[in-house]
Amino acid sequence: MKSSTLRLTRIASVLLAMGLVAASFANLKPAPGPIPDPKLDASAERADKEQVAVFAGGCFWGIEAVFEHTKGVTDATSGYAGGVAATAHYDMVSAGNTGHAESVRVRYDPKQVSYGQLLKVFFSVAHDPTQLNRQGPDSGTQYRSEVFFRGDEQKRVASAYIAQLQAANAFDRPIVTKLEPLKAFYPAEGYHQNFARLNPNYPYIVYNDAPKVARLKQLYPQWYREDPALAGR
After folding, report:
1. Is residue 17 in a domain?
2. I want to staple 98 with a disulfide (CB 3.0 to 4.6 A). Which of 83, 91, 183, 203 is the partner?
3. Is 186 a catalytic residue?
4. Which residue would you say has higher pLDDT here, 96 or 23?
5. Is residue 125 part of a domain?
6. CATH number at residue 167
7. At residue 11, does pLDDT exceed 70?
8. In a domain, 153, yes or no
9. Per the residue annotation, which of 35, 59, 113, 182 is the catalytic one?
10. Range of the domain at 80
């Protein structure tokens, strides 16, 4: 699929009328402010080794953009997780029946940012964890909220944090984020990588994703980096 025909339904939802854009924002309701730090976090025993986390929460362009601007992240790559290699292609995933979710693989330096801190960014900035199988203007299981954990430790930390946020009533609706072991991650097509940085004036980016990066800078300036970590760096 050519980049000029990318996400036609998304573009239409933005350009048809400003009212539709407003409706998209009405559906996207992140926490009103900073949420609690996780009480349980990953061990620092492997702090000398680069770690990997995989998150899904709507269009991967926005998730990637947020983590590209998070300190300690060394690489953020858009891709697919939850399905098999044969269907890890944009035109197939977009049909919503492959089992894949649009996802982002985050490589990070645990000496600078912890897994728990990445979860905090994911839940409070990168997406709305209370939306079931949708984010903003996008709907379908491929846009679900999900943490693909790598090992028992990530599973424990993510599970505990979701329970903590629920108990604290951090959101006005229940969290619907799924947890699933990561079986494989398949990088998306090249034209999806670094999309927000390369296309800052693209309507979908302007209305849906740039505000997420601005929110990261506003809520967590200590974690914000102006110079993004790019896919494939």
Report:
1. yes
2. 83
3. no
4. 96
5. yes
6. 3.30.1060.10
7. no
8. yes
9. 59
10. 3-33+46-219
Q: pLDDT tens-digit profile of 198-213?
A: 999 999 999 999 999 9
Instruction: Work out the average pLDDT over 34-40.
Output: 93
CA dihedral of residues 154, 160, 165, 168 (deg, nearest 10)? -160
Residue 225 lies in a domain: no
Number of domains into which the chain is organized: 1
What does the pLDDT look like over 170-188, one tens digit per residue?
999 999 999 999 999 999 9
pTM: 0.88
